[in-house]
Design a protein that fits this description.
Layout (H helix, E strand, L loop, with lengths): L17 H4 L2 H11 L5 H8 L3 H13 L3 E5 L7 E5 L1 H4 L2 H14 L52
Antiparallel strand pairs: 1-2
Amino acid sequence: MVKRTSHKGANCPVARPLDAIGDGWSLLIIRDAFDGLRRFGQFQKSLGVAKNILSARLNNLVEQGILRTVPASDGSPHQEYVLTDKGCGLFPVLVALRQWSEEYLFEPSETRARLVDRERGQPVAWLEIRSADGRALSPEDTMIVMQHGSNNARRL
């Protein structure tokens, strides 16, 4: 088997997370965790993936701080996997991937799983990229600049 190249030291914010979530099984595990799955057997049943692959992906997601293990909620000796804050931060990534897929990989007549607002049952609005002053941005409106250190000011 070919060893994957690590992107740990990459200065590209698209490349770096690939070590943590750049594998299809990992993204599907995270999707299932958002859907409330918590146990190894639940993930295995949902995904149909070999146990050794699932174990490796779960271990990596725990090492990366995306999932954490907790004692089973039913008091049994098992452990459960829950999303951390870092893992919950992937929600917009999965929504963007889902929306891209709905737009480009499904025929209009095909059945698909839809993400809806739990309170009202309405479809989730299409994600938009906006400037700090609120303007909608397209790829042509953006550019990459290199900067040193953190400039991650966020409005809550």
